[in-house]
Amino acid sequence: MSSSLPSRLSSLPSKPLLPPPSQRPTSAATLLHFPSDQHYASASRASRFKCSAGEPGFFTKLGRLIKEKAKSDVEKVFSGFSKTRENLAVVDELLLYWNLSDTDRVLDELEEALLVADFGPRITIKIVESLRDDIYSGKLKSGAEIKAALKKSVLNLLTQKGLKTELKLGFRKPAVIMIVGVNGGGKTTSLGKLANRLKNEGTKVLLAAGDTFRAAASDQLEIWAERTGCEIVVAEKEKAKAASVLSQAVKRGKEQGFDIVLCDTSGRLHTNYSLMEELVSCKKAIGKVVSGAPNEILQVLDGTTGLNMLPQAREFNDVVGVTGLILTKLDGSARGGCVVSVVDELGIPVKFVGVGEGVEDLQPFDAEAFVDAIFP
Ligand SMILES: Nc1nc2c(ncn2[C@@H]2O[C@H](COP(=O)(O)OP(=O)(O)OP(=O)(O)O)[C@@H](O)[C@H]2O)c(=O)[nH]1
Ligand SMILES: [Mg+2]
Predict the structure, then answer these.
(1) Which regions are flagged for Low complexity bias (predicted)?
(2) Whole-number Å distance between alpha carbons of 331 and 57
């Protein structure tokens, strides 16, 4: 059932309050999904509400904030992937002195560099063989051309499936985002960072401490609530069921006019049947309070685990339907190539990357900025 609108929003103007398309943010730093004019108009006719969008001045403010952030994000993307970059720097060295007679040796070394950076064997072979064909057929004639072709093929791999990287928050209030994944991947930290971003964009965010396995888990989330200035719902008693805590939180979100409820969950192994079933109960409990919710189920994958993350993601996706991935700890590893592997193998969009432990260290994923960051 959809939540009712606050009275101040019930008289939305007949003309949508969207800025002209040219002024709408287009960068992947855009966190929120902007509905089309037509979509928006029908939503306002139905007196429905998408987060805070609809309040006069909201889009102007959001646009400004996103623009400012997009600028600092690009700088951060470049520093965040420093290890992957170091690792792939060999590509530049190889291509600087490349000449045709050296092609096979250079491509062997390029293949090795891509494998070490976790591009995965299938993608690596695909990229290298296509470069080899283009070099021997005379299409690529210099190191610079080879590098440009390499970057283009990585970008194509990331964008070919047309996966959307922005958050899809629907039209009902509150929008609900559930964070799932195996133990220690960075769920709670990513949730905290996400809360910070959404809060800074003018949305009213409620945190839900759905990790009821460990007593310390809700304390950890409370610290994030304080740090980000968000309210939080925690279990009232010990051994509470996660589904009931999350359902209460979403109810409160609905009653008290929150825009977004961010639900933390316990870490669990994808092979543990009963724990995976518990996740299904959590999802159902949320959907009973707000139909269509959770709007996003974001799975956190630890970038340092390399390609082992693929079976985890497959299993979570089969059980609960993952709508996006957050790849964490890419600052600490030389394995940034795993981003390309997961997108190619799973067909699920990477929506954010974690590049540190700080509150600002979660970046919306942008394929072009990513390729520029790892192959500067
Ligand atoms: N370097 C780095 N560390 C991170 C990142 N994200 C999370 N961490 C660290 O990883 C550790 C685990 O993070 P948590 O957020 O507690 O992970 P979790 O998935 O919630 O863990 P459980 O609730 O126990 O399953 C913490 O020390 C975090 O600070 C990241 O992007 N980069
Ligand atoms: Mg946690």
Answers:
(1) 1-15
(2) 36
